[in-house]
Design brief:
single chain, 452 residues, alpha/beta, pyruvate-formate lyase- activating enzyme, Arc Repressor Mutant, subunit A, 2 domains, three-stranded antiparallel sheet, 38% helix
């Protein structure tokens, strides 16, 4: 396995989209293109499947030095109301574009720290969204909570508004690791929010764990996993730490790079962690995720309905995902768009009555074919093709995969590729062989985290 790590541990995307953001054709994108694409998808799918909404709530009271998210650090809670007013104004702009009532199938609050906002302000935000929407049957509403500031009132308020899934960022329980990433968070805090959520009636609780953090050893990782298993969350995200200080600057330079485990050590953390999680009843789903058998994510994998987008893996799918808030990314299936990344500029644009998208990409026919193949690999660990779903460089892709086949990572038949259990850890590498835009436009500088 170590020789495989040496061979395949290269920079690569996580594929929450295709094309990935660095390869979007911004120069041929416009807000008009985006709005036309949104309307096309909305009119075709709103009645049948509804839409998804992602709301980016960017504020955090302190900087976690492992975090690569778009956020604003402040302890001034006076920022809450003006920001939420802008989000509601942005939603009104989409309502005007739709011309009729949207049906919400999925809604996710991400950040930043959504529980930075008071329960009352979250209620006002969501009631403002729901007042102009229809809620689909069996909706999927979820949010990300910080165990240190999520209160029982937060949980009850969101539950009363239809939320049934909560995700808590744990990362790691070792004191030395927590200090290095500036995320001091006692186990008792995680225990409290997990038990409160279950007491209130949430059907799914997820914990996020990160391996490969500074000072990580298997002993520290095992301690974190066993502490997590005392609470038995319904699903787990088990992420590799993405060290990208050249993108996020000082926020990821809170420790020396020599403090990070090597690629070989990281793979040991993953392999041992995966083995322990499976021994304790968890099943690997897609990439980076584990779930118990009763959880919807596992059930959707079995049924073939699992989906992946900018919100991560989901047990349901809509073609249209509208991102609200600064830096949010939206997806109409035929186009992507990202909002302004500055809080102040985002609010200024919205106040002018303009949908605040500033960059994006309109997918061509080839993009759509490749997107589906990569989605198949990321969700189902296999893909197939025929004349309609082939592409010019498919022979090159197959040639690249032959070495992976020899290494036991994939199985290739006449028109099908399957990722083996051994190859699961290298899913990103397999998907990269289909990434035509990256192959044709090799980046001159490093823009992605390492695949391992």
């Amino acid at each position: 396995m170590n020789s495989l790590i040496d061979k395949y541990n290269i920079p690569g995307p996580r594929y929450t989209s295709y094309p990935t953001v660095p390869f979007w054709e911004d120069n041929s994108f416009s807000s008009d293109h985006w709005q036309q694409s949104v309307l096309k998808t909305f009119n075709a799918t709103n009645d049948s499947e509804g839409i998804s909404i992602y709301i980016h709530l960017p504020f955090c009271e302190q900087l976690c030095t492992f975090c690569a998210c778009h956020k604003r650090i402040t302890k001034q809670h006076s920022v809450e109301t003006p920001y939420l007013e802008s989000v509601l104004k942005e939603f009104d702009l989409y309502i005007k574009l739709f011309g009729r009532t949207p049906k919400i199938k999925e809604l996710h609050l991400g950040g930043g720290t959504p529980t930075f906002f008071s329960p009352e302000n979250l209620r006002l935000l969501l009631e403002g969204i729901f007042a102009k929407s229809e809620i689909a049957e069996n909706p999927e509403f979820s949010f990300e909570g910080h165990p240190n500031n999520t209160t029982k009132e937060h949980l009850q308020t969101l539950y009363d508004l239809g939320f049934r899934r909560a995700s808590f960022g744990v990362q790691d329980y070792d004191p030395k690791v927590q200090k290095a990433i500036n995320r001091i968070q006692p186990f008792e805090n995680v225990k409290n929010v997990t038990e409160w959520a279950r007491e209130i009636g949430y059907k799914g609780v997820s914990h996020d764990l990160v391996f490969g953090l500074p000072f990580h050893t298997w002993e520290k990782m095992e301690y974190t996993i066993r502490k997590t298993l005392e609470l038995k969350p319904d699903r787990l995200a088990f992420y590799s730490y993405a060290h990208v200080p050249w993108i996020k600057g000082v926020g990821q330079r809170g420790f020396d790079e020599n403090d990070l485990p090597s690629g070989e050590e990281k793979r040991r953390l993953y392999e041992n962690g995966k083995r322990l999680l499976e021994e304790l009843g968890y099943i690997e789903v897609g990439m980076d995720h584990f779930a118990l058998e009763h959880d919807d994510l596992y059930q959707s994998m079995v049924s073939g309905d699992i989906h992946r987008n900018f919100m991560g893996y989901s047990s349901s799918k809509t073609q249209l995902m509208v991102g609200l808030g600064m830096s949010s990314i939206s997806d109409s299936w035929y186009a992507f768009a990202q909002n302004e990344k500055s809080v102040e500029e985002y609010q200024r644009i919205v106040d002018q009555g303009i949908i605040p998208v500033v960059k994006g990409h309109v997918l061509n026919e080839e993009d759509l074919v490749i997107r589906q193949h990569i989605l198949n690999l990321m969700c189902r660990l296999e893909t197939s093709w025929d004349l309609q779903t082939s592409f010019p460089e498919i022979e090159n892709a197959l040639e690249s995969l032959k070495e992976m086949e020899a290494d036991g990572l994939v199985e290739i038949s006449e028109n099908t590729i399957k990722i083996t259990d051994k190859g699961r850890a290298f899913t990103r590498n397999v998907a990269m062989t289909f990434d035509l835009r990256m192959m044709r436009n090799k980046p001159e500088t490093r823009i992605f985290s390492m695949t391992i």
